[in-house]
Amino acid sequence: MTMKTREQVVRNVATIRAGIAEACERVGRDPASVTIVAASKTVPAEVMRWAHEEGVNDFGENYVKELQARHIELPGVRWHFVGTLQTNTVHHVARLADVVHTVEPGNAWRRLARRAAATRRTIPVLIEVDFTGHRTGVAPEELPAFADDVATTEGVRLVGLMTLPPLPAVPEEARPFLRRLRDLRHDLVSGHPEAVELSMGMSLDYGIAVEEGATIVRIGTALFGERPPKT
């Protein structure tokens, strides 16, 4: 059920923060080192505003049309684009997004960079890594060369890595993929010291992601409830 009351959202924000704090305590991390990005795909602006009022300042959008609308409806927040970049809409992302999580080889990210540079913007970006071989993202073995390309392109600034592992039946199943992303980041920062961010972990597995070093967790269902089925 989609969240319908402010009280439910307030309670969920507190639960998520407590879960992050507990995970941080288990591995000796500071909870302040983890940013909650509210995955707000299809969530009404009013419900998003309830989360913002509880101190959630970062919101992740999958769809360009929703990013455009929410940018007007909910000013003063930090917008993360977490959907697949498309060449025909990426100019809107270049104008509206504060962070882009889904850079992968192809024309779309280059157009993003060109449009940002043309308006004197430099957008922090994360490279999406695909461990499955059939999803969006760069293959792990191709990451070093692609990272060099991104890091030397005007209009974007490489700040880290992102992954979307196969949906786990139980949270622990995600750990090997999250650990592999952390290891890739460890290798990456030797040549790109600013690339410290790890965007990984969602509603089901964010605690494990924090244990494995996530600096950004993208949480939708645990915050806003189940999305209604498509009709």
In short:
With about 230 residues, the protein is an alpha/beta fold.
Q: How would you characterize this protein structure?
A:
It is a single chain. The protein has 231 residues and is of the alpha/beta class. Helix content is 40%, strand content 17%. It contains 9 helices and 8 strands. Helix 6 links the parallel strand 5 and strand 6. 41% of the residues are buried.
State the helical fraction: 40-55%
- Classified in CATH, the superfamily is Alanine racemase
Number of helical elements? 9
Enumerate the strands of the largest sheet in spatial order, edge to edge or round the barrel. Answer: 7-6-5-4-3-2-1-8
The major pleated sheet works out as:
8 strands, parallel
- CATH classification, class level: Alpha Beta
User: In terms of per-residue confidence, which ranges show pLDDT below 50 for 5 or more consecutive residues?
Assistant: none
**How many structurally independent domains?**
1
User: How many β-strand runs?
Assistant: 8
What is the fold-level CATH name, i.e. the topology?
Answer: TIM Barrel
Note the topology.
Layout: H1 6-27, E1 35-39, H2 45-53, E2 58-61, H3 64-73, E3 78-81, H4 90-96, E4 99-103, H5 107-118, E5 123-129, H6 143-151, E6 156-163, H7 175-188, E7 197-199, H8 206-211, E8 216-219, H9 221-224
Parallel strand pairs: 1-2, 1-8, 2-3, 3-4, 4-5, 5-6, 6-7
Helix pairs in contact: 3-4, 4-5
